């Protein structure tokens, strides 16, 4: 079986979020299970010179974008044992940032069409083309309307994965033909709510639709989670399923991670306490083994649950013996709130604004508890990473958080959870976690259980393989 994994970003070439982690690790896990998997993505201007120097030029072609013909260079690279194809067009992709440009619709229409146009130039005809999010949602649309009956393209199946339904690729109907190159006879595939909705087109045309956790697959059938797409998903629910993401456990490995202060493992856990002390010193907090360190590593936006945090965290920090470490950036409202909190409690709160990957790993390794109270979370990787480093998650039961974290009140779980989107339910979960911290024998067992959790791609990769088989 041959799988071509289509993504707008993939580690190590370009990354802005969780899709890059998935695209950088799932194909490698498929390869370990004897599936021939390759990745195709844009060649962004931000790709480093070192990575570019290791690429091999294959060919250049012209790709139709409606009435335009645009240059496309095809490059090949290897990473983590996987072959990557990177598609070059400097007009579309040599820019600052991956997304957020005025012509993103045209940029990714080009990319989607190019994915299909380059297939004859590769030594690889896929059985499955696996597309991800709205940026490649046009691939199933173009395949079914333009390529399925062409010689050399017969028999290919398409899978479309929704990583976050909030971002759908919505545009005005007036550019249906001029930008997307679709005629009126195919307009119904992508039209929705008096607009063009590219994600809707992917859902309509793909042979299977997946999301990144089983719970999220159920949630997006509900209007509260679907951002308007529930009617289409309900109609196409027969082809919808959820497979929980994994993490790269070689990359996130406290036993070998060069970015943390001390290495440790489930068999040799002593380094965990050393990381805590060093983190406290590094962030100018009092070095105390007996105080719980609770951390937050996140975008500081409301749907990550920070309206709940804002409501109760001031009283919690002021009235409890606790240290809080916050790393992230986002809405001005929340950045200012945490700045004020850190100013009011300099011996209890350490704040770092920004995205600092090596510091994030130090925080994962040096914390006791990890707070992730999201309003919605399709899958979430941070809670899995925190488990990998023996840091106990406190999460709301939604999406992948519900599928990966179980409450330890039964003596067998790996974290602390709360159900309703309520600040005081969250506070109750935090207080239960703090109580557990002071029960040293219990907490030691909980940390050991966390370190032994398996959130690798091995199980999820096998579920994808079964899905591919069912499609074929």
Quick recap:
Helix content is 39%, strand content 20%. It is α/β, with parallel strands linked by helices and 472 residues long.
Let me know the number of strands.
18
Sheet/helix structural class: alpha/beta
Regions with little confidence, pLDDT below 50 for 5+ residues: none
Mean pLDDT: 96
CATH topology annotation of the largest domain: Rossmann fold
Total separate domains: 2
Name of the top-level CATH class of the largest domain? Alpha Beta
Distance between the termini: 9 Å
Rg over alpha carbons:
23 Å
Task: Give the CATH H-level superfamily of the largest domain.
Answer: Glycogen Phosphorylase B
Give the proportion of residues in helices: 25-40%
Shape: globular
The main β sheet shows up as: 9 strands, mixed
- Biggest sheet: strands side by side, in what order? 3-4-5-2-1-6-7-11-12
The DSSP helix count reads: 19
Keywords:
472 residues; Rossmann fold; 2 domains; nine-stranded mixed beta sheet; 19 helices; 18 strands
Account of the protein in words:
With 472 residues, the protein is an alpha/beta fold. It is built from 19 helices and 18 strands. The chain has helices spanning 18-32, 49-53, 90-93, 104-117, 138-147, 187-190, 198-205, 214-219, 223-226, 230-235, 270-282, 306-319, 332-344, 357-366, 382-388, 399-404, 423-438, 440-451, 457-471; strands at residues 2-6, 36-42, 56-65, 68-79, 82-88, 128-132, 157-162, 170-171, 191-192, 195-197, 208-211, 240-242, 293-297, 323-328, 349-353, 369-372, 392-396, 416-418. The strands form 3 sheets. A 9-stranded mixed beta sheet has the order 3-4-5-2-1-6-7-11-12, sandwiched between helices. A 6-stranded parallel beta sheet has the order 15-14-13-16-17-18, with helices on both faces. Helix 12 (306-319) crosses helix 17.
